[in-house]
Amino acid sequence: MKYDAASERNKIVLDAIESVLAELGANNTDFGGADFDGNQMPTDSFLIIVEGRRDIVSLRNLGITAEIIPCANQPVAEFCENIAEMKKTVVILTDWDRKGGILAARLEEQFKNLDVPYETAQREKLLFYSKREIKDVESLYTHVLKLREMLHCGDNSDEFENEN
């Protein structure tokens, strides 16, 4: 089989994304290739903050069952105070465009001031592994499907090179 650097990169990216999904408690077997041994947080102990409804749909389609709350169109300080009352760890999963980065920083600052435990590692990993192809949470589901399809098609390609 001919070595394909693009396919290898796609596999690495897909594995990394699935690992993040596993950390967030994804239970969809279609996306079950990720490592579940101890990296998954109990879904009742945290909630995920996203920007909008389409982000929620994307994460649900990826098998995320944890509570997901959109923060769009709300004053950040008031939103964070309401979240603080829930007494849960917050996973900040805003988009990885400029606007999403600014919002993530504002959320972090507010949660820090309110002594609310928060996580940004999942956002940072998704940003690192998918910023070349997509810029938002909303596109994550279709991106994963595309990666899976490309890898699946690659598996069905000619396994043997013609030596003639």
Write the layout of secondary structure elements.
Layout: H1 5-23, E1 46-50, H2 53-61, E2 67-70, H3 76-84, E3 89-92, H4 98-113, E4 118-119, H5 121-130, H6 140-155
Parallel strand pairs: 1-2, 1-3, 3-4
Helix pairs in contact: 1-5, 1-6, 3-4
Verbal overview:
GO terms for molecular function: endonuclease activity. By secondary structure, this protein is of the alpha/beta class. It is 48% helix and 9% strand. It contains 6 helices and 4 strands, in the order αβαβαβαβαα. Mean pLDDT is 85; it is low at 29-39 and 156-164. It has helices spanning 5-23, 53-61, 76-84, 98-113, 121-130, 140-155; strands at residues 46-50, 67-70, 89-92, 118-119. It has one domain: Dna Topoisomerase Vi A Subunit, Chain: A, domain 2 (3-Layer(aba) Sandwich), CATH 3.40.1360. It is elongated.
Strand order of the biggest β-sheet: 2-1-3-4
Shape: elongated
Low-confidence residue ranges: 29-39, 156-164
Overall CATH class: Alpha Beta
Largest sheet: 4 strands, parallel
What is the H-and-E element order? HEHEHEHEHH
Give the helix tally: 6
User: How big is the Rg?
Assistant: 18 Å
Could you say how many structural domains there are in total? 1
Tell me, rounded to a whole number, the average pLDDT.
85
Oligomer: single chain
According to CATH, the fold-level topology is Dna Topoisomerase Vi A Subunit, Chain: A, domain 2
Strand % is 5-15%
Query: Distance N terminus to C terminus?
Result: 16 Å
Q: Briefly note the structural class of the backbone.
A: alpha/beta
